[in-house]
Amino acid sequence: MTSDAVRTAGLAAVLATLVLVSSVAAPLASARPAHEIPVTETERADLSQPAAAGWEDVPASDVALASAPSGVPNADDTTVETVHVQAARTDQRLFVRLEWDDATRDVSADDPRTFADAAAVQFPTNASARPPIAMGGPGNKVNVWFWSGATGSQELLAGGAGSTTAFQNPAIEANATHSGSGGNATWALVYSRPLNATGENRTALQTDGDLDVAFAVWNGSNGERAGQKAVSEWHYFPFGPGPQGPPYETLLWTVAGVAIVAVVGVTTFGIYRTREGN
Amino acid sequence: MSTDQQDDQGSEDSLVDVAEGIDHQVAMVMDLNKCIGCQTCTIACKSLWTEDGGSEYMYWNNVETKPGEGYPRGWEDSGGGWQSGEHSERQTGEIPDQEDYGRAWEFNHNEIMYEGSDEPLRPREGAEWGPNWDEDRGAGEYPNSYYFYLPRICNHCTHPSCVEACPRSALYKREEDGIVLVDQERCRGYRYCVEGCPYKKVYYNTVSKKSEKCIFCYPRLEGEGPDGETYAPACAEECPPQLRMVGFLDDEDGPIYKLVEEYEVALPLHPEFQTQPNVYYIPPFAPGQHTEDGETVDIDRIPRQYLRELFGDGVDEALDTIERERQRTRQGEDSELMDLLQDKNPAKQYRLGVFDDE
Ligand code: SF4
Ligand code: SF4
């Protein structure tokens, strides 16, 4: 081989590698749909504390919040605009971590005028149909994981605003910490639930498809409670086997990658042959 | 018990405006001319219903001095109720501050009783306001100062804005008698009822984290006590001068119907809140003003305008009617109204079983 030929072959190999890498990476990075919240598969057994080691490896999605439409007084006066959501799954449990800015830690409701900070994660009880975003509907209920700074966690069932009832045997756990101060203060909250928890009106987490999920946050010191809350649109956890993200996209990139590699390979071989023939 | 249909007919026949879907409406008339401010009613209620943790600061029945700030302080200006008699738009309201209700003070009993302290008996700390802080202060200048006592419970309103304010329908008006209750299973402590009641007669329990209110002693009405007998609410039965009548507004043979609907001398408190209360008051009389030399002159001691602010414009006619009937009895004539206002017969004062056979 001449030195020219070696250089050409090297270039081709680099090109081929680049193409291959991009075919794998692109769907994960740039093409993730806006309402998808990735769920990281992990071996770590315990992510139940907001500061547990391992959360730094789980990607966070910024979920936008806005005042929920509601008939209660001051419904459009809410303060929290974004919640950062992370989700991780072991073969036993699903962990959902929320983090949001809140300058005050409101954990008491033991005065007539005080309200506690709170948050909620909402799933359809039946993953096959997306319920109305505002607490579901009578025929299309939602399973809510609720946490309040004053009273801890509650698992709820709702079929429309005002219909919330608590599960007698909740399957969820929640741990929260408030840290920082002033403009840098945040709540971090982790909910978790065994994947195999069953029960009437309890969302099945051992599902192969996408699972709809929505979020809500209440700022207690702003008098937020009930329908006066900051809520997200429906998002989804892409549960299911194999690589994540829409598979056809990965397939297309792979086909394109293989074709480019082949073309580069054939071209290189052609040039090499031509030079050798000289 | 009757069928629903008969019940419906019962309320349709009635001349009284009871709430939609309600068979009968409990009601109370309090004669303010008889109240001595002894607080026996307050204690009867408290020892029955609000002695547990989280309810220390509550007085489902309170007796306040008028003119005065009341309990909770400034409740008359705290909003709530309806914007108009159409009952379509509610008026925004505020949750009273804990300081406006007053706290359950701790006293230095221990020091005085067991440690030989010779301090006066007094709250340990921070006693700057509480129920009846301004008791007997009233208004006016000597020798024409004036005040009267105003006992208050939930009015079990015909258009209860507390019920309407709750996004969970945790408050409701009982079908059989219109008593307004908070379903403790449904309540999630949002306190929209607390701010929505213009009389501030729903209270937030700081331990159970749910709202509570006067239940018109419904277990007593239902004969749930050890002897199985029916009793009127404790605040009424325990009142030394027996100034409260208890019955149904739509019991046309009862004294409440006569006083409210026929003679129109029993008036709701602050009718402009538009909740249509079912507790009614015989407005207070006071002797005329005195001159410096102690002569009585024909000028109202309690300014009429003040009474209109409390009981609405109907107060003029009510007071005129009572004065006219008093005059009749002075002249030896019969007056059904005066008999009703003086009647001590318990069977008439408390008429609770009248619809039991329906
Ligand atoms: S007085 Fe207040 S609490 Fe009682 S029924 Fe009326 S609005 Fe409701
Ligand atoms: S018990 Fe009767 S007299 Fe005494 S404060 Fe109450 S209503 Fe007035």
Automatic annotation (TrEMBL), chain A:
Example GO CC term: the record gives: periplasmic space
UniProt xrefs under InterPro entries? Cyt-c552/DMSO_Rdtase_haem-bd, DMSO_Rdtase_II_haem_b-bd_su
Looking at the keywords, is DNA repair present? no
- Highest taxon, organism lineage: Archaea
Pfam family of the protein (one): EB_dh
Keyword Iron present in the record's keywords: the answer is yes
Q: Which CDD domains match?
A: DOMON_EBDH
Q: Name one GO molecular function term.
A: heme binding
Question: Which Gene3D superfamilies has this protein been placed in?
Answer: 2.60.40.1190
* Chain segments annotated as transmembrane: 251-272
- Domain Cytochrome c-552/DMSO reductase-like haem-binding residues, every copy: 52-230
Keywords noted in UniProt: Electron transport, Heme, Iron, Membrane, Metal-binding, Transmembrane, Transmembrane helix, Transport
- Annotated protein name in UniProt: DMSO reductase
Say which species the protein is native to. Haloarcula salina
Organism taxonomic ancestry:
Archaea, Methanobacteriati, Methanobacteriota, Stenosarchaea group, Halobacteria
Automatic annotation (TrEMBL), chain B:
Q: Which GO terms describe its biological process?
A: anaerobic respiration
Q: Name one GO molecular function term.
A: electron transfer activity
> Which SUPFAM superfamilies did the record assign?
4Fe-4S ferredoxins
Recorded GO CC terms: membrane; periplasmic space
Do you know which Pfam families this protein is assigned to? Fer4_11
User: Where, per UniProt, does this protein localize?
Assistant: Cell envelope
Q: Which cofactor does this sequence's record say it needs?
A: [4Fe-4S] cluster; [3Fe-4S] cluster
Superkingdom of the source? Archaea
Q: Where is this region: Disordered?
A: 70-96, 325-344
- Pinpoint the 4Fe-4S ferredoxin-type domain residues: 26-54, 145-176, 178-207
Keywords, alphabetical: 4Fe-4S, Electron transport, Iron, Iron-sulfur, Metal-binding, Repeat, Transport
Q: What is its main location?
A: other
Q: Which PANTHER family match?
A: NITRATE REDUCTASE BETA SUBUNIT (PTHR43518), RESPIRATORY NITRATE REDUCTASE 1 BETA CHAIN (PTHR43518:SF1)
Q: What protein name is recorded for this chain?
A: Respiratory nitrate reductase subunit beta
